[in-house]
């Protein structure tokens, strides 16, 4: 079975052969980010697929934020390119949870936290500790926090 990093490199080669500029530049930047993460610290190491997914998720989030900034700055063509790069990277990430699925997981975590004695908005940290491992890689942290706040508020 090939690793996610090997799949990215193979897809990059295909994109280069097909002269797909958007895909090749996006994959190049992502592979560079992965390599940078591998050599960060005192010793070089090989990232696991989970760690590679985290790097890809971080890169996709950067694209979404950049697209928003470009849109607010009146540069729609740059915003559109960033969105396209984000969509391209999302294909390498696990399927994101729907709002209903996320709310269900959060509701169960809120009940679990209440059973442990945590109540009201101050229970945010306790609920997040329960939810984060369950939704790792399947929902953006901002979405999770918003859902937790909404359910804790009432």
Explain what the structure shows.
The protein has 154 residues and is an all-alpha fold. The protein has helices at residues 4-17, 21-39, 49-72, 76-90, 99-115, 124-135, 141-153. The mean pLDDT is 85.
What's the helix-strand series?
HHHHHHH
Structural class label: mainly alpha
Mean pLDDT across the residues is: 85
Number of helices: 7
Total DSSP E strands = 0
Beta-sheet strand percentage? under 5%
List the uncertain runs. none
Helix content: over 70%
Gap between N and C termini, in Å? 47 Å
What key phrases describe this protein's structure?
mainly alpha; 7 helices
Write the layout of secondary structure elements.
Layout (H helix, E strand, L loop, with lengths): L3 H14 L3 H19 L9 H24 L3 H15 L8 H17 L8 H12 L5 H13 L1
Helix pairs in contact: 1-2, 2-3, 2-4, 3-4, 5-6, 5-7, 6-7
């Amino acid at each position: 079975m090939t690793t996610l990093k090997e799949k990215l490199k193979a897809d990059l080669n295909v994109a280069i052969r097909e002269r797909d500029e958007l895909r090749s530049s996006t994959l190049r930047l992502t592979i560079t980010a992965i390599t940078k993460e591998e050599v960060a610290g005192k010793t070089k190491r090989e990232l696991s697929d989970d760690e590679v997914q985290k790097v890809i998720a971080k890169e996709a989030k950067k694209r979404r934020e950049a697209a928003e900034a470009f849109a607010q700055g009146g540069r729609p063509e740059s915003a559109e390119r960033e969105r396209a790069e984000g969509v391209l990277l999302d294909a390498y990430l696990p399927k994101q949870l729907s709002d209903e699925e996320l709310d269900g997981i959060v509701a169960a975590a809120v009940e679990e936290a209440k059973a442990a004695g945590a109540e009201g908005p101050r229970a945010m940290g306790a609920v997040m500790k329960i939810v984060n491992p369950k939704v790792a890689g399947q929902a953006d942290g901002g979405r999770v926090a918003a859902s937790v706040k909404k359910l804790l508020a009432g």
